[in-house]
Amino acid sequence: MGIIESIILGIVQGLTEFLPVSSSGHLVLMQRIFGMSEPQLFLDVMLHFGTLLAVVVVLWKDIVEIFKNILGKKTWLLVVATIPAVIATVLFKDFFEQTFGGEYLGIEFIITGILLTVGESMYESVSMRKYNDINFVDAIFLGIMQAVAIFPAVSRSGAALAGGLMRRMERKTAAKFVFLMSVPGILGAFVMEGADAVKAGLSNVDWVGTGLGVIFAFIAGFIAVKFMIAFVSQKKLYGFAIYTLVLGTLVVLDQYIFHIFFKA
């Protein structure tokens, strides 16, 4: 894999980690398009590190506030919201790893579109609730939605945002809480997948390409977080729903009929 491919994957990872369209799904899809027969595990891990840095930089004030009151309600809300994904990962790790082969990629994109559509259809702005109104039931519900997004093409941010809208959170509040939720989620994936990558060996790593991928993942992720907080505050997510529904349909057609990128 060349430097150009690494940069493109970095940009794709950075944008799609925080846009509600699934970063893992797009990485699997792009690797198929680039003709990569084996998952690029170490590159995936490092690109996640780039997006982790991006969300920390954008939300550093919120993160510092949480650390100043480390045993406060906001900390416990994030802990509770993280638990469902941890349980799902521990119990079904082998099953989820098998799905990264892309067999169900199209269906998973479609699921993302359905979740975004349902979330928006259930949202009522007249009953919106602000950050201080978030409770542990909200945290558990969003955590379950995030756990569903362990499948590669089900968007973590999309599923959790849909959950926030279903729980009648204020739109900006839902976006910020979802992106704060992503910090332990991305960090956990970085640690677990990083250990697997080290075990697999690093002798064939393209360090220059990987480094450039991380830089572009950080830049794209920074832009995506800033954009999404502003976008979600004012606009609906139906456009992203249509995108993932159409993309999912095209992938399904290729998987089962055309076999251009997904060989039979």
What report would you give on this structure?
There is one protein chain. The chain has 264 residues and is mainly α. It has eleven helices and no strands. The chain has one domain. Helix content is 77%, strand content 0%. Helix 5 (73-99) packs parallel to helix 7 (136-148) and helix 6 packs antiparallel against helix 11. 45% of the residues are buried.
Task: Tell me briefly what this model is.
The protein is mainly alpha-helical and 264 residues long.
Number of strands: 0
Low-confidence stretches: none
Shape: globular
How many alpha or pi helices? Answer: 11
Helix and strand run: HHHHHHHHHHH
User: Gap between N and C termini, in Å?
Assistant: 23 Å
- Arithmetic mean of pLDDT: 89
Task: Give the proportion of residues in helices.
Answer: over 70%
Structural class: mainly alpha
Instruction: Report the major sheet.
Output: none
Radius of gyration: 18 Å
Strand content: under 5%
Tally of structural domains: 1
